Backbone:
């Protein structure tokens, strides 16, 4: 099974990647990075890990061809911009890349955006 984690640089994503790398039943893990120079040293030389360039804000950079599963972890958006719009755009871009791949059978989408608010974030 070939599993993609996108985006791969957030803390939760790094935890997910490490968990997959530690699982001997997973033969291939791909991390999607806006800047592949930010790949942690512990992943770089791992036999089953591959880093690729891509940006969840630009769907044209996402290619999941040949992948079986995609784990999407919405990163925190702390710059004051509209995190709901960012999350929707990211979800749309990933969903379109999954559909285009024709190989992904297991999409997983994880988000905690808005978890700090008591109400008003379900859209």
Residues:
């Amino acid at each position: 099974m070939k599993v993609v984690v996108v985006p791969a640089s957030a803390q939760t994503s790094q935890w997910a990647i490490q968990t997959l790398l530690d699982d001997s039943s997973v033969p291939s893990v791909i991390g999607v990075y806006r800047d592949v120079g930010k790949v942690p040293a512990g992943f770089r030389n791992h036999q089953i890990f591959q880093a690729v360039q891509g940006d969840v804000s630009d769907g044209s950079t996402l290619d999941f061809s040949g992948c079986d599963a995609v784990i999407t972890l919405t990163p925190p958006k702390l710059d004051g911009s509209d995190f709901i719009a960012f999350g929707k755009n990211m979800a749309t871009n990933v969903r379109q890349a999954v559909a285009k791949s024709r190989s992904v059978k297991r999409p997983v989408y994880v988000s905690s955006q808005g978890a700090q608010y008591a109400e008003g974030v379900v859209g």
